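To assess whether ligand presence alters the predicted conformation, the chain was also submitted together with fe (ii) ion. Input:
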Amino acid sequence: MAVIGIESSAHTLGVGVVADGRVLANEMRMYPITDEGIIPSKVADFHVGNVRKAISSALRKARVSLEDIEAVGYTKGPGLGPCLGVGNLAAKSLSMKYGVPLLPVNHAVAHLEIAKHINGFVDPLALYVSGGNSQVIGMEGEPFRHYHIYGETLDIGVGNMLDNFARKAGLVPSWGSTVAKAAEGGRYVQMPYTVKGMDFTFTGLLTNAVAQLNEHSVADVAFSMQETAFSMLCEATERALMLTNKRELIVCGGVAQSKRLREMLLSVCEAHGIRFGFAPNEYNADNGAMIALVAERMLESGQRYAIGDCGINQRYRIDSVRITWR
Ligand code: FE2
């Protein structure tokens, strides 16, 4: 028996299949990003055009037929409304047609859980960094076990800052790995550094970096902005580690693919004897396998939902999710 998961919160449509915590397939179709950025209705059209094919090819790769599927998971949020709607509808159709449970999954929980699972961690602190989110998170609480947010961005996600900077600096494609490449060989110039307790902000840094493009090379500015932003994330994470006494740290989400960020977090962990881990890049990008993995945990721990309660929530916060599995 297997569980299928559909992810459609942003520009990537993902369909994954898992069985007993093992990933059998992880299919992705990514909307081609152009200068106009992400227009939700256009991305949703792309997902509509690809969802059937992605489901079929995930099942083929997993060597599983729809009749063998035990439950269907989908991303409830957070994300872009029209895009979430496509995955929601596809998942509902499968659930009704095959008479199997439908499970609404929080996208951030999924990134965190798959990284935790792959590293075999028990109770990690997590730095979740993506386009739309940047949060320092850890498990808390009985009887309402949930992921508590110790600190987070007070404006935009760090990934959003990197993508925005890339566009303003004319770097193509406009995302974080292009900024990282442009930063090679750069020298540090002074930039605003803002950490408030365990929260942080990125818009001031972005505005300052874009303005400094008039005086300094793209390499110097890209390097300095990246170093400043990642140092802010490391400071907040280190403070949260000291506060919570957690002995494991994971970094997850799209920006967790950054080698420099991983290197800096590793040095924080080494200084305190803390275990550090992350998932392979295919699970830091948006993907269906992580949705299927969490759906399987929800299923096994007894969660069931009426179809009418399975909607979407563009602002579905991780700290509102009840965690019913260990
Ligand atoms: Fe994501």
